[in-house]
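User: quick one, sequence for these tokens?
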């Protein structure tokens, strides 16, 4: 193929904090794309991170990494946004909202000045509200603005169930839906292993639900930030997009009449492929789960309304 017809695959990561750089490194090691661009308000930090990764290229090769600016969003397949204030010990994801909403308005306008065809993948917290803001500010179709949603929460849920049952978490089929945060809903009614219901005590279920919801707080209190697992979750979404998988992932998307919820971004099972969110899958919840999901949506709507003033 001639160089004139070859279009390299490119991912831009906005924000070179712990999540952004770990995500970039994960994508680099797994060679998901041919180009990775790092953008940060602290350009020197982005330069240093790119240089550090470039020094490893003789060991792996195949990927071009550099520190760029928003003009490098031109032609990017996916722009991942991890920039913003990070969650501190004792702080909820919602506490970050006002700080990060202001930052996002500028970031999204800068991205869309150079890219109107790519997919925007949002990881900054509170991710559901910031994905909602991104979609409104960008004017992108809903399928091309995706929040990382409850994909990581679902992974934590599966890990804890697997640990309890002594089963590989990859064989556990279980999801968390709703807010990526305190009101998230572990869906026990649909959890299974190979179609077999999980036989667990209510006490165990309650403990696993609590540990799933509080996992981030536990990590932040212990080491200050979470970044390894969310980087792997973002890598999973990127792979589903770039390889046109049609994978079912619990990402955050704009819902319309979903379990009685509309006009809010929340994590639910979605089919993800090269177009972004191709389809939102309807799931049958119990009455209690439906109520919890609707309460999660209402919490998001209240915060968005407060933000608007």
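Assistant:
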């Amino acid at each position: 193929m001639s160089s004139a017809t070859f279009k390299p695959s490119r991912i831009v990561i906005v924000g070179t904090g712990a999540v952004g750089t770990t995500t970039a490194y994960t994508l680099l090691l797994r060679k998901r794309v041919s180009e990775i661009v790092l953008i940060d308000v602290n350009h020197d930090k982005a330069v240093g991170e790119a240089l550090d990764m470039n020094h490893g290229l003789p060991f792996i090769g195949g990927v071009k990494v550099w520190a760029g600016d928003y003009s490098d969003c031109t032609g990017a397949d996916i722009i991942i946004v991890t920039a913003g204030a990070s969650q501190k010990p004792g702080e909820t994801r919602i506490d970050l909202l006002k700080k990060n909403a202001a930052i996002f308005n500028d970031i999204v306008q800068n991205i869309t000045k150079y890219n109107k065809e790519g997919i925007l993948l949002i990881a900054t917290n509170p991710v559901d509200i910031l994905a909602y803001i991104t979609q409104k500010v960008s004017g992108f179709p809903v399928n091309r603005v995706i929040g990382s949603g409850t994909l990581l929460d679902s992974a934590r849920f599966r890990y804890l169930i697997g640990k309890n049952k002594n089963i590989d978490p990859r064989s556990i089929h279980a999801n968390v839906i709703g807010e990526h945060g305190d009101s998230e809903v572990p869906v026990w009614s649909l959890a299974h292993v190979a179609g077999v219901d999980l036989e667990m005590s209510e006490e165990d279920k309650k403990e696993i639900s609590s540990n799933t919801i509080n996992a981030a707080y536990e990590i932040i209190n212990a080491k200050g930030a979470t970044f390894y697992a969310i980087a792997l979750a973002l890598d999973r979404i990127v792979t589903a997009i770039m390889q046109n998988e049609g994978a079912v992932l619990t990402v955050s998307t704009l819902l319309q009449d979903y379990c009685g919820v509309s006009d809010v971004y929340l994590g639910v099972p979605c089919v993800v492929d090269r177009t972004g969110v191709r389809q939102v899958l309807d799931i049958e919840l119990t009455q209690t789960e439906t109520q919890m999901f609707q309460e999660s949506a209402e919490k998001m709507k209240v915060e968005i309304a407060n933000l608007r003033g």
